[in-house]
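ok so I'm stuck.
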Amino acid sequence: MELLHLIPSYLPAVRYGGPVRSVHGLARELVRLGHRVRVLTTDIDGPGRLEVPTDRWVELDGVEVRYCPVGRPRRITRAPAMRAELERLLPEVDLVHLHAVWQWPTWFGARAAFRANVPYILSPRGMLVEELIARKSPLAKKVWLALIERRTLARATAIHVTSAREGEAIRALGLDLAPLVEVPNGVDLPDPLPSEQEAERAWAPHPRGRRLLFLGRISWEKGIDRVIRALVDVPYALLRNVGNDERDTTSGLEALAREVGVADRVEFVGPAHGAEKWALLAGADLLVLPSPSENWGIVVSEALGVGTPVVAGAGVGAAELVRRHELGAVVEGSPASLAAAIRELLAAPERRRAMGERAKGVIGQNFSHAAVARAMVDVYAQLLAEKRRHASVPVSAAAALD
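replied:
not stuck anymore, here's the structure
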């Protein structure tokens, strides 16, 4: 198959978290399965730009990538240079895969693909959740939804969700305007996994039995404040927060830690990548992710993949995986429930060890990028077969929206 992916940001823009890594992992494995994969993206990297060529295609792990200069407004990653590339590419591709909503590349890519009669699948990447819409720029999003996003969703051949919870959130909003297909995010694990010595060095001088790790964007949306409050009732535990802070959230969380009397047990160490990240994950006693809403939570898969149990909020998409296979604890998110789950698991090292061994097998078998890519190929093939069966039927009732 000739496949074209559109995503607002791409590697090496790792500041944008899980979707950037999971989309590249998918694209890379699709290439290994014999498909041609091209990625149209922008050079946005926070307030700056990636140091990448923007005048030609480049290869990244066999994936052909074109970085288009981001223009204004940057907030929606408008990239005018994508127009010409799309016009040139669409006659050659079998299917377009769009990633993210509320963004110019998704809107423009969907419109161009529809007009060229090329089917497209849309991955909202956890952005179609009522709480998230209400929390940030709700009026602007409601307008965008009415004028643009509903049409984009209605014209899609399918909407890709990474968890059952994400599908439920989309249905609750009445936005299941195309068939929903569920394929999880893949995870890239290091080979070999970090050694015990590497894990211990990453956490020195803190001993086993008290290490809690949060890894991700430092943001109030992630529920870090709940863990800080929970530490009051787990007086021997230490919380290390690892990740980018682009909104000066750290200062407020540090003030909260001082206010509740746990400042000496809360660390903010900035982002970690590569071997350092994996050593921190492997050396933690527990990963904590109490986000009120998370379509999956790729860091959960990463932690489980190296054998670290997880305490996850019920609003995290991966929580069902943790619950089903007994790989940690799932809590409703209050500081009291977090504290109770953390105390119970920290007091049971043998139980944590058994959870960790079980977790490695679950992730390795079901969430490798290779397994996810095979599942996605099946979805693509089914969608293209459906399109061929209906080739003589008008493209879509969504045309009435024009």
